[in-house]
Amino acid sequence: MPKSRAEKSDAKSVKFRVSLWNNEREITLDFPQEWEIIECRMAGHDFPPLSDSQIRKAFEKPHGTRRIRDLARGKKKVVILFDDLARPTPVYKILPFVLKELREGGVSGDKIRLVCAYGCHRPLVREEMIKKLGREVVENYLVFNHNVYEHHVKMGTTSWGSPVLINREVASCDLKIAVGCIIPHFTTGYGGGAKILVPGAAAMETIAYNHIELHNAYPEQVGLGKVKTNPRRLDLEEAARIAGLDIIANVVVNHKKEILGVFVGDFVEAHRKGVAFANKVYATENRGKFDLMVLNAFPIEESPEKALWTAQESLNNGGDVVLIWQTTEGLLPHYLVGTFGSDYGGRKWQTPGPLRLPHARTLFIYADCLSKQEQLWWGPKDTVLWYRDWKKLIDSLKPLHGKGTWVAVYPYATLQCPIFPDEY
Fold first, then answer.
1. Which residues, other chains included, contact 389 with Cβ-Cβ below 8 Å and sequence gap of 6+?
2. Which of the four CATH numbers 3.90.226, 1.20.1440, 3.30.530, 2.60.40 does domain 5-43+284-410 have?
3. How far apart are the C-alpha atoms of 21 and 332, rounded to whole Å?
4. Multiple choice CATH, 52-281, 3.40.50.11440, 3.60.21.10, 1.20.1330.10, 3.30.300.20
5. CB 3.0 to 4.6 Å from 322: which of 148, 294, 370, 381, for a disulfide?
6. pLDDT tier at 1 (50, 70, 90 boundaries)?
7. How many Å is the Cα radius of gyration of the chain?
C-alpha cells in the first residue's frame, strides 16, 4: 500500500493554500516553538503534473469505448457536463482536448452546449462560469445551469428503485460527455464517473431516493473509499447507463489543482482506473492519536466538514481541533441538506445538534468571516470558537497544550483520505 508523507517540522511554520476559486493564495502560519509539528501529507504530494502531450494521449486511448471523435460522427446535439466550484476540477484545462475531438468528429460549435451539473448545489453566475470553463468557452458556446426542480425527462427506473429523471437539455442530446474529477467522497466512495449525471443533472426525486432511501437501506455498504459494491454508486451508475452517458474525461488533481492523471472512456471502466490511481495519490497514513489537530479545509472549502475524517480517526477523546477555513464563500447552499429556516431545511436536513466531532472538546475555526448560522451549524456555541486572528487563536491554545505537544497538521484535509484496502 502507498505511504503518505508525514514530516516533523523544525521551522515551526507551515504553508497552506486557501480560497480555491476566489483569490487563491498561499499563507504561512506559525506555531509555538515548544510544539512538535507533524505535517501529514498525502502520498502524491510531490507527484509531477501531466504535460499537454500526456493529457492528449489519454484522449487517444480511452478505456472501454471509442474515441470522442468517433462517437461524435453524425451526432446532431452534444452536451458536455461539468462540475461546479465545489470541486477542484480545472475544466478549462481539459475542455480544449474535448472540443478538438468533437471538431475532428465533424461537430460544429452550434451543436454543442455545456451544462453545469451541480446537483443540489447552487447555480453559477457568469464570472464563475469563466473561472471554471475559460472566457473563450463562455463567450462562444451555450452554457446552462442545471435546474434540480424543473425541466426533466423520465428515462426509466433503476433496479434499485431510483426514478431516472434527467435534465431535459441533457436528455435531448445524442452525445453526452462528462468532465469531472475523482476525489474522496463520504458516501459514494469517490466522486467522478457517473456521479456528474446522477445527482449532477438529475431531478430532486432521483437524488433524494439515492441519498435517503438507499443510504438508509444499506448504511454499512456506503462510505469513504467504498466503490465496487456500494449500492449508491451502483444505483447512480445504472441510472447513467439508462440515461445514455457516453463517455467521461475525469482527472485526479493535486493540492495545487494540477492534473496528475486523466481517465477517459466508459464511465465505469475509466472511473475504476482513476480510483485505483487516486488511492495512490490521496492516501494519507494515520500517524496515531493526537491531542491537537490542525485541518485545512482547502480545496473543498464549501464543504469543510469533509476535512473532519482525519480527526475522527486520529484525535484523542477530549482533544481539540483547529479548522483553517479561509474562504469568502461560506457553507455551500444545498437544497437537499441545507437550512432554509430557523427549524427546517431540505429533505435530508437534520436539527443542529452536538459538535460535529462528538469526541472533541472544542473546535477552533480560523476564518475571516463566519455567520451566526454557520457557527451554530458546527455545534453549540460554547464548543465552537471563531478567530479572525491566527496569533489570538494560538494564544488561546497555549494554556491547553503545553511544551512537547504533538500536533498533526493536514495541509489539504478535504482532499486527503485514509489508506484503503485493495478491495475498495
1. none
2. 3.90.226
3. 13
4. 3.40.50.11440
5. 294
6. very low
7. 22
